[in-house]
Amino acid sequence: MVVLSMGMFCSCSEDNEGFITATEDDFPQILLPWFGDWENGEPAVYKTISRDAELVDSTVVTPALYTTVEWLIDDEKVCEGTKIQLSPLLAGEYILKIVATTTKGKQTSRTGKLVVLPLDGDPTPSDGTSDRKVVPGMTAKLHGTNMDKVVKITIGDKEAAATFVPNNGYDYIEYTVPSDLALGTYRITLTDSDGNVYGGDKIEVCEELPVSEETLWEGSFNVTWDTPFTLLQTQFKDLVKSGDIVRAYVTGEGQGTMTTAWWNNILTGKGDPERGDITINGSMVLEFALTDYSIELMNEQDGAIFVGDGYTITKITKE
What we know:
Blueprint: E1 10-13, E2 29-32, E3 45-50, E4 55-58, E5 60-62, E6 67-73, E7 76-80, E8 83-86, E9 92-102, E10 107-117, E11 124-125, H1 129-132, E12 133-134, E13 139-145, E14 150-155, E15 158-161, E16 163-165, E17 172-176, E18 184-192, E19 197-205, E20 214-223, H2 236-239, E21 245-260, E22 278-289, H3 292-300, E23 304-318
Parallel strand pairs: 3-10, 12-19
Antiparallel strand pairs: 1-8, 2-5, 4-8, 6-7, 6-9, 9-10, 11-13, 13-17, 14-15, 14-18, 16-17, 18-19, 20-23, 21-22, 21-23
């Protein structure tokens, strides 16, 4: 289902001028717009727009006088004709397909990704794999920026109340996945306290969660201010990528966090006193969802380490 903003308006029109020498017996061709080549089974990005912008485009087909054009988003027809003017879509990634069919039933199509970007200040979920696969009835998390605005998440036609959890730059909402959700992939929306609705892209409802956690290091390392955990400092940049979740299994009574080798927070880039060390009480799991910025920091500031005092790291994993 295509999730459109309120007051959606779609305007389509036909323009059959040009290419009139072709006959209805010819195979249809879509000459414009241009679509990039597929890569690794995925279509190329066709267009990137902000969520407050209309999708405006036109297509040139041949044989023009004998061909109809349909525009589909996520397999749902949204317009018919050679021109499209579609009112703003919610933020997220969509699959746009243009289908050209002749009066003799001959058909061709072009497919590409339509990326709709959020505006500054919008609740914007991250695309971490662990957040995007859920099981009916489970307590789930959805990390991201500006998530403190979210009071409700909608998955398909099911709603769930959301509770914001601040987590030292790795903030998230927590919610209970509706137990009567059928298995499948759903586009989700996020709602704030004023009733504004934001796009959250897609979530897959599974029968069970896949096991995808990989151990990077295991042992026993006592972290103090004088002895930060540096055993993976230079390897981290080759072991992880943007979107990975790094988990540190710790125990103790102290404080600490994951940083660059320059002791700046791996998520925010901030140093002491704004580094955001996490208070550690007993056995805990510290989670860090790496972003493009995290990888950039890691490469520019000599890798990644764990700093702090009064705790022991027993295992480090990634997902």
